[in-house]
């Protein structure tokens, strides 16, 4: 679908094409609607988020670490994974963490039309609500990819769209210490941190390296003077 927009934009110049590509691929671009990609830079606060769960192996130890260190987090959940692992999804809610919509099947929305996009968001919304009893109020697009058809559905569902300040490519499984070091090197005040407790395409995907890295990440950031805040703080911003 984005190729159609790019082809149309080519006739009006490279700037139009560049704007379309930026809107499609930049998770924090406002071109296709408002998005929050970081918090205020005035305090040493960070916001911990996890994508692509729930996961039957990694989510539980992540929850244990968060509870042990009294750290809030936000989990952007894939609806189909919620359907497959309802007890894990309910455990996230029971632990007091915020949950958000990450589509029903983790599809790349920039290449989808309005009907498929509406179905992906509304099906995930319904799945999360029916399973956990929580009405999701936030949305993150898989890979951050969007097109003009996403925003009308976001408005209808009354969502706030979130991107992220940086990720550390934990999905590439580089090892827990590498994940930890990348986080320590990149962190900045106000950052929305992207990690993964699941695999968007494989409900049984291995994310134990992220779970293993998390205790060290929390210690490192706190030692550096950072406070973990809930993403909900930014909803009023």
Q: What does this protein structure show overall?
A:
The protein has 237 residues and is α/β, with parallel strands linked by helices. It is built from 9 helices and 8 strands. Strands 1, 2, 3, 6, 7 and 8 form a 6-stranded parallel beta sheet that branches. A two-stranded parallel ribbon has the order 4-5. Helix 3 (59-69) runs parallel beside helix 9 (208-223). The longest helix has 19 residues, at 114-132.
Write a compact overview of the structure shown:
This protein has helices at residues 2-10, 14-25, 59-69, 79-84, 86-94, 114-132, 150-156, 176-186, 208-223; strands at 45-53, 74-77, 98-101, 138-139, 160-161, 166-167, 192-196, 227-228.
Name some characteristics of this structure.
single chain; 237 residues; alpha/beta; six-stranded parallel β-sheet; two-stranded parallel ribbon; 8 strands; 13% strand
Strand content: 5-15%
User: If you compute it from the alpha carbons, what radius of gyration comes out, rounded to the nearest whole angstrom?
Assistant: 17 Å
Low-confidence stretches are none
Distance linking N and C termini: 33 Å
Question: For the report, how would you describe the main beta sheet?
Answer: 6 strands, parallel
């Amino acid at each position: 679908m984005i190729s159609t927009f790019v082809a149309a934009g080519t006739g009006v110049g490279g700037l139009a094409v560049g704007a379309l590509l930026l809107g499609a691929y930049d998770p924090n671009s406002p071109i296709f609607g408002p998005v929050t990609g970081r918090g205020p830079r005035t305090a040493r606060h960070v916001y911990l988020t996890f994508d692509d769960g729930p996961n039957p192996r990694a989510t539980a130890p992540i929850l244990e670490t968060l509870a042990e260190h009294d750290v809030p987090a936000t989990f952007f959940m894939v609806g189909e994974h919620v359907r497959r692992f309802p007890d894990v999804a309910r455990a996230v809610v029971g632990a007091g963490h915020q949950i958000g919509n990450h589509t029903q099947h983790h599809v790349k929305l920039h290449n989808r039309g309005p009907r498929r996009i509406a179905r992906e968001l509304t099906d995930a919304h319904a799945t999360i609500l029916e399973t956990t009893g929580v009405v999701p109020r936030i949305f993150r697009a898989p890979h951050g990819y969007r097109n003009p058809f996403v925003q009308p559905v976001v408005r209808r569902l009354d969502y706030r769209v979130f991107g992220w300040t940086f990720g550390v490519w934990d999905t590439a499984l580089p090892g827990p210490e590498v994940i930890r070091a990348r986080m320590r090197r990149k962190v900045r005040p106000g950052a929305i941190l992207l990690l993964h407790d699941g695999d968007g395409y494989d409900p049984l995907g291995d994310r134990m390296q992220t779970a293993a890295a998390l205790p060290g990440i929390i210690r490192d950031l706190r030692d550096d003077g950072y406070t973990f805040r809930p993403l909900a703080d930014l909803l009023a911003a």
